[in-house]
From TrEMBL:
This is Extracellular solute-binding protein. Keywords: Signal, Transport. One of its GO terms (biological process) is maltodextrin transmembrane transport. It comes from the Bacteria. Belongs to the bacterial solute-binding protein 1 family. Residues 1-23 form the signal peptide. One of its GO terms (cellular component) is ATP-binding cassette (ABC) transporter complex, substrate-binding subunit-containing. Residues 30-54 are annotated as: Disordered. It comes from Cohnella faecalis. Residues 30-53 have a biased composition (Low complexity). The keyword Signal applies. One of its GO terms (molecular function) is maltose binding.
Amino acid sequence: MLKKRTSFTLLAVTVMIALLLQACGGNNGTSDSTSTPAATGSSSPKSSAPSGGEKVTLKVWGDLGNQAVLEEPFKKINAAFEAKYPNIKIKYDFAQNDQSLNVALQANELPDLFWVQGDKTSKMGEMVKNGFLLDLSSHNLDVSRNSDPEKSYCTVDGKLYCSLPSFFDTNVVYYNKDIFSKNGIDVPKNWDEFVQGLDKLKAAGVTPIALAGKSEWDRAWPIFAFAPAFANDALKAAQAGTGKLTSPAVAQTLQAFRDFADKGYFGKDFLAQDMAGAQFSFTNGKAAAIIDGTWNNATYTSSGINLGRFPVPNNDGKRVVQSSYSNFMTYAVSSRTKYPEEAVTYLNYLSGHEAQQIMEDATGLVPTIKDIQPKDEGVKELAVFDEAGLNIYSVLTALSTAQSNAADTFMKEVIPKLMTSEITGEQGAAILDKAAAYPAQK
């Protein structure tokens, strides 16, 4: 008997997240190591900001990869902040990606503030280790509205290093309700129904799922969605060192992705398609669905199509989703900033209800704090699942070392070879197992 689908309240989502070991989400994640020279003056500097209402300008780097989604809310957030704090001017530029951040770290020329991914990857911890980030513990960052897991996201060695998250990220199937209805397809109750629906779409001459095969991160979203559905227990065991990535469940996850490519569910030219092309294929009706993150919900909502959303169900009909915190509003302060107090004032504003509601109204993310009002009913639809599970990339990051990076192996070797049918799911699992460094058992 299929388990009854559970519609979680947004407050319940917060409770479930509290059970997570670690998380990932957000677009354009990175596993690049921060092997850069240690910054000088890593202890908290005293503010040298002008007093008496003189203007202080804070240079802030935004997420270049998500500029299209974030430009509108941050214009409003920064304008509201400057109106509230007229002595602080925000010079906000969408200048940050992996490359620009690494260059700034190497040159020791970070802006005053920049976005980080907390404990999703090892990057923030490495920046802390090398003295690049300001310890916020003694700067009265307001964390009164946040849960312990949200605080842990920003914590390294017991100290806070970024503004706290307030939104939940996962991967779902966005689908065109009109195309599904025309082809007699309902929201699938289990994996077999999901695949049967894709077969119907292909037979009707419709690309079942748009995929950006050209983009390293965006082509991975289907596996990110499949992994918790099929292999959540196996990933937990691997991360704890009580199991291996050669588990049949992990192999099944990887094989499902290869099967989708082999069967043509991603269309004919997906290998050469970037994310903009994949999104356009979906929003203009050439593809019936796309697997993407909740961070892009606003993109699909604004397209005007009759939009629906559902998580990937497993064989038994259980809907276990990848879970993480959104990094759209999690910013750190450079240890070399001349204006630490003003920078923390900005972080406090980002961590507050006013800025969070502006972000919610613009993007339709899933809130994890109960006083943030969901943008619309579609946001509630994103929170319909049975269990919040692990993120495969975060698990592989936890199993990585400086000598062998399992997460990089997954993104740069295993996924491309699965897409081009060079390896099977079982072979992919073996590659990951060889790259992994499991924790020692006592």
